[in-house]
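User: I'm writing a tutorial on reading structure tokens. Could you give me a worked example: one chain, its sequence, then its tokens, then a sentence or two explaining what the tokens reveal?
Assistant: Sure. Here is the example chain.
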Amino acid sequence: MTSKEIRQSFLEFFKERGHTIVPSAPVIPYDDQTLLFTNAGMNQFKDVFLGTGKRDYVRVADSQKCIRVSGKHNDLEEVGRDTYHHTFFEMLGNWSFGDYYKKEAIEWAWELLTKVWGLEKQRLYATVYESDDEAFEFWKKVTDIDSSHVLRFGKKDNFWEMGETGPCGPCSEIHIDMTPDYSGARLVNAGDPRVMEIWNLVFIQYDRDAQGNLTPLPAKHVDTGMGFERMVAILSGVDSNYKTDVFIPILDTIANITDQPYFDDSRGVPHRVVADHVRCLTFAIGDGAMPSNEGRGYVIRRILRRAVLYGKRLGMDSPFIYQLVDKVIEQLGAAFPDVAPRRDFIKRIIHGEEGRFHQTLDRGLDMLRSSLDALENQDTPVLSGQRAFELYDTFGFPLDLTQILARERGVT
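And here are its predicted structure tokens:
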């Protein structure tokens, strides 16, 4: 299946089971000042979980645009270096607001993964919260999972909380074992990419107060989230999200524009960083985030400048990232139609930022290289904070780029 077919298959599956299919919320959560960016599918339903709002439906599913580049969900430095971290991604999810609960959530998840999508059952593991006997038993009653593949874990891995107070509850995660010899049992929740979480089923049933006490909610909810790009890679039988039709067209376009061929190994890091970042920039700017010196605007500016830096490693000394916006919209415009009418605006903003930063970058890079060269023969080379600050304050060279370049030269 193509990525478009996988997304549609997910939505159709839950539509057939009485779910209303709703559009993605913007990546800028205008009505929630606690978030810089929409970082999970549940964000647009937060008021329902808090009991301050309601919807006309009790079952819903969607594919949500998400950005994770700040707070506890900050994997920026991993982007492009590994195969599955992204600044922008889609989260497929289904929800129940006081309607169905653990039994149906578990049963339908297993049905979609194994019967509709045909994943090998022996490669799948389910985790449950250590005291959640109900979910533990449902996995054995309503699915044909190997009983030894249902594992209990503690609060760190299998108890979900919206915050220090508020709605919370146990969760049940589904993991896939990609080891060649099916030996991944010990790698579940171990942070090993050979055994990855693919779907999290959250059972919201408590309200936590300021003293940490849990009170059962009057209505129990289901909140699930599945990483779309990761699932496309699995169903495509490849070991990297960048080897799927989600990214290949963008990577090919980058290779054509820069005249630098793409490789799956470390030589392809610049291509992968640019491909990831232009997706994030397209949707963030399209939804109203403007590059600036503070808040979410600073995050967007930082991502754009990081893309420019890696573009220079592909020999690009003039703006080019804006040219990739068309390919991103060609890939995702049907799923997220709000972005297409803003195409020219997005390209104009990115092009202007690129041009201004190239001037800053050239001056700063020359000064930073000379400083790093001077440290080359030291046993434990350290670039002084004074120098880093001078680069930033006098020449506008971002501190995080100084840190990236210094680290690559073995300098702290």
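What the tokens reveal: The CA atoms of residues 1 and 236 lie 7 Å apart. The first strand starts at residue 20 and ends at 21.
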